[in-house]
């Protein structure tokens, strides 16, 4: 039987992060993912908080919620799940590999949302174990948004064979928008998202986790890339982002967007070397 944790209000993310770190040290049994779901009902978005988020990510000010802001709302549910003693993998050092957001229709500011999240499909990865985190948002009985986030837990083990890497089409390159990312970008995004993972906050903590310097949040990258084409997106779409290499801050990146038919191909690259950092695609739902 599925265990359900129902949150009555927004939790304190710093406290949950601390609990997730503490509980992860005692996880010895990697027998499988728990049958656990975290929910929060009747969530109403604060217009001021939305405006602050839009400012940091580059979205315009309007009464429609960006697809990535829905991830922002379910993120505390995800961390609550990761902090549960039944969850077998440690939060610290985990890496967000891929993120797929499905918008079924525009979601307006003021619509009360019922949110839920759970995990599935733990499987081997060449560097550890990857897990899918599924999230949904309903307005009443209507499913309006879905999220599928894939996390890598480095150094962990699970039975099975590492699946082959799928073939991919070429990522767009060439001229694009050049963004100069300030060293405090991680702290500014943390202030509007609640994601206070130390790898995004200070260089010294990022280095302690094995990164060369502070790295930008993957969800900031996805948000900024979607914000660049937000006025040309359909009402219903699927946006997939694959986070290939860390976006180091401070730094300079180049965002390339190419449209083929109704599909957008997006890429975020190191501006000097051209290295692909984030690859994205946005397709309409017919």
From TrEMBL:
InterPro entries, per database record: Fatty_acid_synthase, HotDog_dom_sf, MaoC-like_dom
Gene Ontology terms: biological process: fatty acid biosynthetic process
Listed GO CC annotations: fatty acid synthase complex
GO molecular function: fatty acid synthase activity
Domain MaoC-like: 187-261
Gene3D superfamilies per the UniProt record, alphabetical: Hotdog Thioesterase
Entry-linked SUPFAM superfamilies: Thioesterase/thiol ester dehydrase-isomerase
Family the entry assigns: Belongs to the enoyl-CoA hydratase/isomerase family.
Name of the featured protein: MaoC-like domain-containing protein
